[in-house]
UniProtKB/TrEMBL annotation:
<dbReference type="InterPro" id="IPR013148">
    <property type="entry name" value="Glyco_hydro_32_N"/>
</dbReference>
<comment type="similarity">
    <text>Belongs to the glycosyl hydrolase 32 family.</text>
</comment>
<dbReference type="InterPro" id="IPR023296">
    <property type="entry name" value="Glyco_hydro_beta-prop_sf"/>
</dbReference>
<feature type="domain" description="Glycosyl hydrolase family 32 N-terminal">
    <location>
        <begin position="18"/>
        <end position="214"/>
    </location>
</feature>
<dbReference type="Pfam" id="PF00251">
    <property type="entry name" value="Glyco_hydro_32N"/>
</dbReference>
<dbReference type="GO" id="GO:0005975">
    <property type="term" value="P:carbohydrate metabolic process"/>
</dbReference>
<dbReference type="GO" id="GO:0004553">
    <property type="term" value="F:hydrolase activity, hydrolyzing O-glycosyl compounds"/>
</dbReference>
<keyword id="KW-0326">Glycosidase</keyword>
<keyword id="KW-0378">Hydrolase</keyword>
<protein>
    <submittedName>
        <fullName>Beta-fructofuranosidase</fullName>
    </submittedName>
</protein>
<dbReference type="InterPro" id="IPR050551">
    <property type="entry name" value="Fructan_Metab_Enzymes"/>
</dbReference>
<dbReference type="InterPro" id="IPR001362">
    <property type="entry name" value="Glyco_hydro_32"/>
</dbReference>
Amino acid sequence: MLELPDSWVWDFWFARDGDEYHLFFLYASRALHDPDRRHGRASIGHAVSDDLRNWTRLPDALVHGEAGDFDETATWTGSVVRAPDGQWYMYYTGARDKIQTVGLATSDDLITWHKYDGNPVTAADPRWYEKYDGTSWFDEAWRDPWVYPDPDGDGWHMLITARAGHGPADDRGVVGHARSTDLLHWEVQPPLSEPGAGFGHLEVFQVEVVDGQVVLLFNCLRGELAPWRQETARSSGVWSVVADSPTGPFDISKATLLTDDSLYVGRLIRDVDGSWALLAFHNQGPDGFIGSISHPMPVELTPTGLTLRHV
């Protein structure tokens, strides 16, 4: 488990280099006292492990930009991929007040990161996605990029937390989508799901093939569910849904709940023995927000998604 005595830790993502797991995570000082204030003070920390259980902290990866930059408020959740030339690419959310866009940083060694001069690399396109107007939602959602290669070798895909530009305001959460051939230039595409599935937003995507089945992971707390889904949901946290292809489309209406709100931002990863496991951050406890990252939890596939395997 990763727990920092002086900071809250929440959203995170991985890169694997040989036998080492590199963990990148959002954190903010507990001196803020109110954990709800952490989002505006987030930096991207870094730790390394050889077993997913014992972590050694490394120098921070990124901090927010200067006044006027696309990430002047905070740097938020992202993902890391390795380019064909061996360089590491980190896509991350840049927040500027209510507006979110996706930026890029690169590294030769996973330790020292440099922001790309052409940032941001993608933003919400009003042809398909909602833009912030101060009335329908609390921000312009275009965050949490998950980047992965096309299964047929045709470039790269990016899944993005986004909201459709139509439908009931509390039910517009969709799987945002962009494509690239070179990891630098991205073309926004129509969403890979439809609004109306019962989610105000779908946070922190990940798509993997588990035991031969494509599974999409995403996250949504009960307060961001559409009212009609809240009526039947006793809790909400990490969700999963099966699909026919890693590139969608995804029928979010068939998603099933994997965890309650005690855990959030679930990430699938191969454990040291090769089995699939879930890590998540400890969210709600008896005394409120916790802010630490769990040990790996074994998962197993069901016909409709994933479930935690009790051991």
